[in-house]
Amino acid sequence: MENRKNQGNRSLDEFIRDIKDQELKGILLKLKNEIRKPDVPWVDIKTILKSLNNKDKDAFYEILSLIIH
Fold this sequence. Notes:
With 69 residues, the protein is an all-alpha fold. Helices cover 81% and strands 0% of the residues. It has one domain.
């Protein structure tokens, strides 16, 4: 299971690296940092996901796919 989590994180890192929009990249980096914390409250993740959805719906759906896989 840990191996799959690390693969997902690498995919997320690759996705973020390819983003040119600095505001979007900032949101994604914040999300990445929060989901890697051991006991992050759902409300924190939810707030970041809402910001991502408002900024770029396509990126939002792609990130959801990366996170759940």
